[in-house]
């Protein structure tokens, strides 16, 4: 990611709406690469492959570019962005509704990539709301998210240990509902261990 950031820095420095649209087109277009033919592990780190489970940096760089554009323009709540992110997510939700599963994630498909736009924008709005002083239950909720964000590397490491430790056991993934419950349990257990530390 740092290498891509350094190479693209001159472009990101001049970030505007046209560059953001071009970034979205490039990220979406890279999802149509013939993933079966990508066998080099270094190339797979950047664009994905069917031979390795990777987080393809170039496809997801659209969100990085959008973050730069949002910060540079001081964008917070805009109903147009909400509507656009909902429209971008419709194919993903339609796929889930008709097939019972999300579009392909490894390697990433264009529907999966843009299907997350709504959640990323809502998470961004939540992060913006956390900047303001809160009271009551809202303060407790934002406090939990702040502590999770402050220890994000700890959460990532510990959650991966828990997920891969149970991967081949009888507690392995069974359904979407089971996945959500497992996610909540992971957050609670990690929060408990973090308080002990």
Task: Give your account of this protein's structure.
- The protein is mainly alpha-helical and 197 residues long.
- The protein folds into two domains: 1-131, no CATH class; 133-197, no CATH class.
- Helix content is 72%, strand content 0%.
- α2 packs antiparallel against α4.
Brief digest:
With 197 residues, this protein is mainly α.
Count of all domains: 2
Number of distinct beta strands = 0
Name the structural class: mainly alpha
Unreliable stretches: none
What integer is the average pLDDT?
Answer: 81
| Pattern of helices and strands | HHHHHHHHHH
Number of helices: 10
Q: Roughly how many Å apart are the termini?
A: 30 Å
Q: Biggest sheet: strands, sense, closure?
A: none
Strand content: under 5%
Shape: globular
Q: Percent helix among the residues?
A: over 70%
**Computed CA radius of gyration, to the nearest angstrom:** 19 Å
Helix/strand layout:
Blueprint: H1 2-13, H2 17-30, H3 41-47, H4 57-73, H5 79-99, H6 110-115, H7 117-130, H8 136-150, H9 152-165, H10 176-196
Keywords:
2 domains; mainly alpha; 197 residues; 10 helices
